[in-house]
């Protein structure tokens, strides 16, 4: 199920991250929260493919150098990577919880 959602979600990320001139956030550094959230979803959906998807947060931010009205930002790239990692970890935790595995060793 989540793999059927993953491909359209990656296409959505490509569109959102590479469209020219997006409106700025009224919240200071609000764009960092958006980057964190959108890549957390990617990490959650693609947790089993994380090795192949981990370059995507870096590549998408780097491609913004070539998009009119967009700028490259190391802070955005960091938010992308942190969000991706949190999504993967949350996905693994959720997967283990569903399988009845305990994260804490009791005994």
UniProtKB/TrEMBL annotation:
Pfam families the UniProt entry points to: VanZ
UniProt keyword annotations, A-Z: Membrane, Transmembrane, Transmembrane helix
Span of domain VanZ-like: 30-91
Transmembrane segments annotated in the record for this chain: 74-93
Top-level taxon: Archaea
Coiled coil region boundaries: none
PANTHER family, alphabetized: DOMAIN PROTEIN, PUTATIVE (AFU_ORTHOLOGUE AFUA_3G10980)-RELATED
Protein name in the entry: VanZ-like domain-containing protein
Taxonomy of the source species: Archaea, Methanobacteriati, Methanobacteriota, Thermococci, Thermococcales
């Amino acid at each position: 199920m989540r793999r059927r959602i993953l491909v359209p979600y990656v296409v959505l990320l490509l569109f959102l991250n590479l469209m020219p001139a997006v409106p700025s956030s009224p919240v200071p550094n609000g764009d960092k929260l958006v980057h964190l959230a959108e890549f957390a979803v990617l990490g959650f959906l693609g947790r089993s493919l994380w090795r192949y998807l981990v370059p995507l947060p870096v590549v998408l931010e780097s491609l913004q150098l070539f998009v009119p009205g967009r700028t490259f930002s190391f802070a955005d790239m960091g938010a992308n990577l942190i969000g991706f990692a949190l999504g993967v970890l949350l996905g693994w935790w959720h997967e283990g919880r569903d399988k009845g595995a305990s994260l804490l060793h009791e005994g």
